């Protein structure tokens, strides 16, 4: 059990780097494709990859729990990815990824009544420091902010938080449910609303350049298939609130990659926000280590 927790923490750091570094490339991909098309491609074929692995491993695909994973896919895949990509169209990549990570706030609020996971005073303090940093970066009083983009990013974070809670409840109710099978089904279910949107919003033809194809393949294999496995593995072995707080490294990686690849240089207040988020993360880790000793 302790090894699984350690692997979960390591996996979350790897996941955070993958997701954070990918944000500028997602924004770049939208120069070649509409948001619904890109979201569908990365999620549907990510599910195809996972089902292919299930076949190679000779694991059962048609499980009785599959229909129960539809709501999880609706929030974890369709809502989270759809709102995120739409927000990237409307606003900056660095600010979008920061606002998406208001997710731990919603998780902390929902985990107490729904999962009975109480945060201690020190955990609340660590969370408060992180959210203070996010609040400084968000800066709702700045008239230059794109309100629509901010709202969409917040919606993505809230949808993600709902997926976290649902995933944890599923693990509790179905402890023997195979992680790979669960990930594949929720990703496939989440692709359905995105597919329907393709017929509602006409974004024009996709420009199939080598650059766009490489971004899509990276998203299918690493950002979706591999990263979601790491995410659900962590949710299975750690508390939902702890997973959410540990994954706050993602907005830092996203902001750094947006600076290096898109030239989005953070201002002084944003730099303060980044430092506060990091302080909150390491405060939480420090407290958890001391608690075990």
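Sequence proposed for the structure above (293 residues):
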């Amino acid at each position: 059990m302790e090894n699984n927790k350690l692997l979960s923490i390591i996996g979350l750091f790897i996941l955070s780097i993958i997701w954070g570094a990918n944000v500028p490339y997602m924004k770049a991909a939208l120069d070649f494709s509409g948001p619904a098309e890109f979201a569908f491609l990365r999620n549907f074929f990510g599910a195809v990859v996972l089902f292919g692995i299930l076949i190679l491993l000779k694991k059962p695909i048609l499980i009785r729990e599959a229909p129960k994973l539809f709501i999880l896919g609706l929030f974890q895949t369709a809502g989270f990815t759809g709102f995120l990509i739409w927000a990237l169209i409307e606003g900056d990549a660095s600010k979008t990824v920061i606002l998406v990570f208001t997710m731990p706030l919603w998780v902390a609020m929902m985990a107490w009544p729904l999962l009975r996971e109480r945060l201690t005073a020190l955990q609340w303090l660590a969370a408060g420091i992180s959210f203070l940093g996010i609040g400084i970066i968000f800066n709702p009083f700045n008239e230059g902010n794109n309100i629509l983009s901010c709202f969409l990013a917040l919606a993505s974070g809230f949808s993600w938080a709902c997926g976290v809670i649902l995933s944890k409840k599923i693990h509790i109710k179905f402890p023997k449910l195979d992680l790979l099978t669960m990930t594949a089904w929720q990703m496939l279910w989440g692709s359905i609303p995105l597919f329907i949107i393709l017929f509602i919003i006409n974004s024009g033809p996709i420009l199939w350049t080598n650059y766009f194809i490489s971004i899509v393949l990276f998203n299918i294999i690493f950002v979706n298939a591999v990263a979601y496995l790491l995410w659900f593995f962590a949710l299975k072995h750690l508390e939902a609130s702890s997973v959410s707080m540990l994954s706050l490294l993602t907005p830092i990686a996203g902001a750094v990659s947006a600076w290096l690849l898109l030239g989005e240089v953070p201002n002084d207040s944003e730099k303060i926000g980044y430092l506060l988020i990091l302080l909150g993360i390491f405060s939480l880790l420090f407290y958890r280590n001391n608690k075990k000793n």
